[in-house]
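Title: Prediction job returns without error message
Component: structure pipeline
Severity: low
Priority: P3
Assignee: unassigned

Description:
Job completed but the reporter wants confirmation the result is attached to the right record. Sequence as submitted:
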Amino acid sequence: MAVDLGRFGVWHTAHNWGPELAAGLERAGYGTLWLGGSPAADLRDAEVLLASTASVAVGTSIVNMWHADPAVVAASYHRLEEEHPERFVLGVGIGHRERTGEYKAPYETIVEYLDALDEGKVPVERRVLAALGPRVLRLAAQRTAGAVPYLTTPEHTRQARTALGLGKLLAPEQKVVLETDEGIARTVARDYLAGYLKLTNYTSSLQRLGFGEDDFADGGSDRLVDALVLHGTAVEIAAGLNAHLEAGADQVVVQQLGKEGPDLLPGYEALADVL
């Protein structure tokens, strides 16, 4: 990866991102601010994060291939590179069948989109791919700087490292709730996971990891919820985050649940103190 991303990053959609949170996370020492959801092709939300900070990396996780014209995305990439050299990473992905009416031939669509980014002269070393299954992970290794898997576990990270091989970026996302009461933490986690556990991309990935249909019912089994959303003290959560590094991740991308906007900052600062 041509950009220094650091060992830990933070993931949120544009709803939570803002100048105050971005600047605070940079001061706390996080290496990358990941803009989640489906950022628009003009990448203006990423531009706000870059302008609000001095040196931290900013990435998209992910630009949705069905919604964002690759030519516009490529032009936007070059604009950001000119304004903020060597700080931006373009993350792209195929999105979800359930949320895309025209979803078909997903693998071929990914290949064609990467071809278009080649035509737009977006460097391979400055783009990453949302990848869960082995086939797309291998494509990420062949055509991009690496993979940014979402909704995963350390076991997936271990398998993903094998599929990617050495020398390619692996930056899995991990959700956390800074809460020691198991009941409260699991309620927060289930509220957030509800929509994700209806998406085939994720349930198929989780089934490959040994989770069954019973784990997806009623908001998710305790076993599944605890695997996907770490909870406890900052020290306990840090141990779970480090498990991804031990499994082969280059960076762990943290998403804190239960707070919004600037209210997220104290929790991230507490984690940064022990990471």
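Comment from assignee: result matches the submitted record. Residues 90 and 127 are 5 Å apart (CA to CA).
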